[in-house]
Sequence to fold (274 residues):
Amino acid sequence: MASVNTNYGAMVALQQLNSTNSQLEMTQSRINTGLKVSSAKDNGAIYAIAQGMRSDVAGFGVVSESLDRASSTTDVAIAAGEAISDLLIDMKEKALGASDASLTSTQRSAFNEDFTALRDQIATIVSNAEFNGVNLINNSTAGIDALANADGTSTLTVADEDLRLTGSILTITAGTTINTVTTASATVAAIETSLNNLNQSLARLGTASKALTIHSDFVTKLSDVTEKGIGNLVDADLAKESAKLQALQTKQQLGVQALSIANQSSGLALSFFR
Fold:
């Protein structure tokens, strides 16, 4: 039936064209953003999951920074401890030399001057072994905590190691000298004890540093895997979208032609009155 009031063919053609335009808009959005789910209206459930995972990735970044700071602080403490160990070895050599009873007072005094200079250098090293405001070998803190998970509910702790001359690890003091045979002999024994204690302290710091490094590597891998998972959920297949774009563009052109043909059908009514 030919009618000027109702053009059902045009209605159908318009519906199909609108559907094609909607699909084309969606495909173009995916190509522009690289995402098949870029907002909640695309897929609410997937978007919510992806946002939660993005939150975890952001948290992993903070965890990595925290672990890096703790690792650097620990490495500074280890470097200082190793320097002190070298000084103790030199000091033992001086003390052992000064314990020789055949030395003159002048010779023993020279040994003592060298010894005290090395002894005072320990205090200098301890006071300067600081990173980011934290010193792990001067008893200024109980230790340093590093974040271990994205929720901030777990931490890794590196305990303080008091390497001061007034601390418990080194058995020599700021007043230790080797100006007599007796004090020199006693100092040799004290330095040997200090070296044993210091080696244990360095072992603890080294173990803690290794633990931080291992966990940092794990967090990096975990972040990468999580990001890959997000991509699997929301990333668009651009090759597929490109092919779909061409098909929809062709379909759009055909839809425009179909609508044009449908709109011409109402003009047939005029032919009945010629």
Remarks:
- Residues 8-34+237-271 form one domain.
